[in-house]
Backbone:
């Protein structure tokens, strides 16, 4: 079994390919420990068959274990024992027809264009149903009431109470993983990475650029690593504040809604002042930047985050003391720590339910390698926890940005390279990159062939795991609480569908 | 409690932008490009090879904003010949009008002759829109939501996004239109009563953007119906969207 660290490159030939039985045992043993979780498990077409690579992250010693096999038929499903593996095995089955025995939930994931079985299509998704005269079903979507991405939610209800929610996705599938290979220019791929999930343009771009830079053997000056973290944390601050606003909207608390809306505007306009785009598109580039952080811009960022911090504190102090807010947040949409561990929630969805999982601490990247970082972890697992986690992370990230701006003063005369889109990549290699975006753990893996060309690119948005968290959260809730539960998770449809 | 609310309100201040058509954006914002007429064939070829979405045609030189993802790489390559200005009024009601030629420094305005007469007759005072994200990446969607927020306040013009297509006057499409969304989009469009508008928001919707060539798309819907407004951007800035809509329904001429 191979042990590597975040953004390490390894030779594909050095990965030991085990007979499936042995592979199963090894993964089973690893996942027995709570500090281990699977960050990616995917099949790569190779010759007539497939190489299936499983990457398991150890949250306590920074390591990532790589295990592989190449069998395809009647594999004993890991999901039967480790439920968090469900989506990986479903994906392998859907994409390539790899078969699993005893998989309890072998459902389609996203109906990709190049799926193995073209007869399966989104119109005839096999919904779970319960035969009973007392129950009824409610279908919502793909198109929803507001301006929001499409997805279908199928509820089985007993009166007003939700017994079961099944979430069917795939409407947003654009074939990004295939395009990552079809579009050969590294700039094109950078633009694609920004579009995996436009609300996480910086998070996904950083994951992509980290892989490419590592495969090309480039090491970046401290200054650019630090500036990238500032950009990433600004993205987190903006979205968390926007989500606070959205949560207020859903409970008709207008003051909180409009105050936070305006604060989010300040943050994204700061990003726009820095790079010309409110979402940071066109910002993160390979091996360099067009937008070095100047002293003036650093000052603007500092001024704006200080202002935002003060005002966000005012409004959150107010809202989290209002009985009318608390009664709509507390005890709604609970996820237990056991459920969170079982389905492998990541990022915010894990940390609000008592699971300490944050790549910034467990597998530090870029300038986080030089920082001590302690994640915020709450344990009530309800809408309240998800709202409070955002509040606490906003203040935490503002403090991080402030500290980084302070450190930046001594670095700001360091020269900083321009982007380079002609990176030559190590041949026959695999690189895995993990970044903690605002939703959680983003994981990309790239494999190169003997000429150094990327022949497989795997993308995982944290939403891939976390949708199951939402489905569990609404069990035994009033169906009318679905919108606030959904909002409190704010998961990505396109990041899931790719 | 009241005191604390007053404090929040005081800090909040007045947020709405009084004049949505004259407010200036930060200098680095990437809006309408200006291209020097002195651009050489060689330079044109070079940047058209660089452009991630094939938005640049080298001879004669032009940038198609319907394909451009506003990455600004062409400007970085030949900054003395191409400059992205912060002019955010880049919507058009004709596809060709999105093509910016070398030497052109004119602001972009809608062509009233090309407009269907019903638009201003029916929708000049109030407009209800149904948004459909057809594989949009949630950036344009968030900007459309922002159009209605306290800063941009689209609602003041009688323009709003609505849930039921049956209560709406048109569809605002974001995203390159995936195969899996083709049917829902069609069903939604069919549910909107006549006369109805089709508005494409974002480069992905207008041309497919960076997704051009993907097998996962099905853009046949877009060849079936006339498009009333193209709003380019990656994502579209709320000011681009609002000004575009106001020009379309003739509200900004008053
Ligand atoms: S800014 Fe537009 S035209 Fe220029 S390179 Fe980027 S996509 Fe092409």
Residues:
């Amino acid at each position: 079994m191979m042990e590597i660290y975040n953004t390490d490159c390894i030779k594909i030939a050095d990965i030991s390919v085990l007979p499936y039985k042995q592979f199963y045992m090894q993964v089973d043993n690893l996942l027995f420990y709570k500090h281990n979780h699977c960050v990616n498990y995917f099949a790569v077409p190779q010759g007539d068959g497939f190489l299936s690579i499983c990457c398991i992250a150890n949250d306590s010693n920074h390591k990532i274990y790589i295990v592989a096999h190449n069998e395809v038929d009647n594999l004993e499903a890991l999901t039967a024992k480790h439920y968090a593996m469900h989506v990986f095995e479903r994906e392998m089955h859907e994409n390539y027809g790899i078969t699993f025995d005893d998989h309890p939930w072998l459902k389609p994931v996203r109906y990709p264009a190049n799926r193995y079985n073209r007869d399966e299509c989104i119109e005839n998704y096999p919904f779970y149903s319960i035969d009973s005269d007392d129950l009824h079903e409610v279908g919502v979507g793909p198109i929803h009431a507001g301006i929001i991405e499409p997805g279908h939610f199928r509820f089985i209800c007993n009166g007003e109470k939700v017994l079961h929610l099944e979430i069917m996705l795939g409407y947003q599938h654009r074939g990004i993983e295939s395009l990552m290979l079809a579009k050969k220019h590294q700039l094109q791929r950078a633009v694609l990475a920004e579009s995996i999930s436009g609300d996480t343009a910086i998070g996904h771009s950083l994951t992509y650029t980290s892989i490419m830079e590592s495969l090309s053997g480039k090491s970046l000056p401290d200054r650019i690593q630090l500036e990238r973290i500032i950009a990433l944390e600004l993205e987190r601050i903006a979205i968390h504040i926007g989500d606070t606003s959205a949560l207020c909207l859903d409970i008709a608390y207008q003051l909180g809604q409009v105050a936070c809306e305006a604060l989010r505007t300040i943050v994204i306009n700061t990003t726009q002042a820095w790079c010309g785009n409110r979402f940071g598109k066109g910002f993160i580039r390979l091996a360099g930047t067009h937008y070095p952080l100047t002293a003036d811009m650093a000052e603007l960022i500092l001024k704006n985050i200080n202002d935002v911090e003060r005002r966000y504190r005012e409004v959150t102090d107010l809202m989290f003391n209002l009985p009318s807010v608390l009664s709509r947040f507390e005890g709604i949409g609970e996820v237990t720590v056991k459920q969170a561990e079982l389905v492998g929630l990541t990022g915010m969805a894990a940390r609000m339910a008592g699971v300490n999982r944050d790549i910034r601490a467990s597998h530090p990247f870029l300038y986080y390698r030089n920082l001590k970082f302690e994640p915020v972890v709450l344990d009530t697992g309800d809408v309240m926890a998800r709202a409070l986690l955002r509040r606490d992370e906003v203040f935490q990230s503002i403090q991080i940005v402030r500290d980084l701006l302070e450190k930046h003063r001594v670095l700001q005369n360091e020269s900083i390279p321009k982007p380079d889109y002609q990176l030559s990549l190590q041949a026959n290699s695999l690189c895995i990159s993990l970044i903690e975006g605002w939703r959680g753990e983003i994981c990309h893996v790239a494999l190169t062939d003997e000429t150094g060309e990327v022949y497989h690119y795997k993308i995982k948005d944290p939403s891939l795991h976390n949708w199951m968290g939402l489905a569990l959260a609404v069990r035994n809730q009033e169906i009318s609480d679905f919108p606030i539960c959904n909002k409190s998770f704010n998961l990505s449809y396109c990041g899931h569908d790719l | 409690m009241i005191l604390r609310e007053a404090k929040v309100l005081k800090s909040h201040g007045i947020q709405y932008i009084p004049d949505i058509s004259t407010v200036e954006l930060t200098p680095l914002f990437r809006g309408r490009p200006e291209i020097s007429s002195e651009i050489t064939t060689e330079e044109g070829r070079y940047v058209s090879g660089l452009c991630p979405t094939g938005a640049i045609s080298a001879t004669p030189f032009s940038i198609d904003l319907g394909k451009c993802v506003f990455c600004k790489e062409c400007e970085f390559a030949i900054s003395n010949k191409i400059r992205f200005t912060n002019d955010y009024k880049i919507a058009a009601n004709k596809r060709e009008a999105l093509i910016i030629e070398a030497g052109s420094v004119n602001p972009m305005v809608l062509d009233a002759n090309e407009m269907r007469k019903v638009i201003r007759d029916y929708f000049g005072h109030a407009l209800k829109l149904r948004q459909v994200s057809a594989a949009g990446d949630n950036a344009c969607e968030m900007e459309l939501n922002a159009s209605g927020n306290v800063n941009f306040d689209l609602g003041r013009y009688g323009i709003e996004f609505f849930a039921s297509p049956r209560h709406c006057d048109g569809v605002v499409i974001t995203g390159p239109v995936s195969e899996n969304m083709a049917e829902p989009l069609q069903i939604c469009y069919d549910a909107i009563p006549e006369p109805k508008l089709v508005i494409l928001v974002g480069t992905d919707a207008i041309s497919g953007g960076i997704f051009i060539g993907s097998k996962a798309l099905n853009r046949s819907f877009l060849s079936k119906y006339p498009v009333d407004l193209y709003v380019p951007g990656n994502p579209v800035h709320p000011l681009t969207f609002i000004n575009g809509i106001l020009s379309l329904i003739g509200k900004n001429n008053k």
